[in-house]
Amino acid sequence: MLKVPFFQSQLLILFTAGLLFWSSISSLLPTLPLYIDDVGASKQEIGIVMGSLAIGLLLSRPMLGRLADERGRKIVLVIGTIVAAIAPFGYLATQSIPLLILVRIFHGISIAAFTTGYSTLIADFAPTETRGQIIGYMSLTTPLGLAIGPALGGYLEATSGYGLLFLLSAELGFVALLAIVQVTNPPVQIHEQTEVEDRNFWRILGSPRVRVPTIVMLLVGLSLGAVHTFVSLFLKSTHVDFNGGLFFTAAAISSFSIRVFAGKASDRFGRGLFITFGIFCYVLALVLLWQADSTIIFLLAAIAEGGGGGTLISMMLTMMADRSLPQERGQVFAICIAGLDLGIAIAAPLLGTIAELVGYRTMFGYGAVMTSVALVIFLTQSSKDLSNSLRFALGRAPDAYALNNLKVRSEEL
User: What ranges in 129-207 are assigned the alpha helix state H?
Assistant: First the structure.
């Protein structure tokens, strides 16, 4: 009788910490570029400083994933919240562009640590039969935080200045840390018959159960980075009466709405169907942006983009939880999410160059092609052969790499 309230209380603490963390991070999204501009940076330097976050993400994820497996999920969460509480003071401490780049790289470690520890710990707590539902609900902290943080940050920047803004960001991170210290690490069950402790980064990445999802996340990350970086500029160039803020608000509402039921539905119909749906939503969003010339088309593109974000990332993490042993789950999650990080990181310079040559509209067309490639890869390579891949991706067959198929996993390992 005591286990259910304890389980629920742990999830509530984690949800609260996640909401505080994402509010801390996102409070600087609309305001930090303004601060960097005020210290005298050029537009190019603003982009470099903001993009430096991805360096911290990419460099730290593999190490943090291994740390989560070897030392427990909680220590990685503690690292993430400590960095989130310290980094905002770094922005105030200097007006040097090189030093701001270093602070931004340091800040990126917080996202790498928190997302790796948070996702892995939720997967540890969640029973297999309701894993999709629980991960879906717990992932709501991201769209909620991304809605609350920018509103708070923008208000403080406009009314009180940067000092209180950075103090708010730091305090939200600190309160998230206070919540995390109350979390209990569940014991990690070691499966001796499929021991994987000697597996390193490259061997895990080389496994088809991880390699294909990581490639899919990389291609989707390119398109996601293109939308987040260039959609506001594209809207401005089209003179359509629809601004970037409304686009992302509509996307956030769509993302929140679909997460509420997608996770639970995936426990019944399988992860593959919803991952396919999520990738298709991104393809549709980019095709709509390629053809957009009115408010309604931009609104539909925003809804499609939010639908993709609300299903793909949480369902991909749920699938990777199905495919991983507890003692390797941190590394598996870190590698898969690193694909998304890399795609987002290289989207701005790569697709920005394309936009310079052929314009924003055609750039989104190229993005639709890349995301279509991701869809084809998942449809044809997500399982052990073409037939099983198609059936799994369309919700007609179970995942051949899931742990409940011990024969497949034993052969692979």
Answer: 131-138, 141-159, 162-180, 201-206
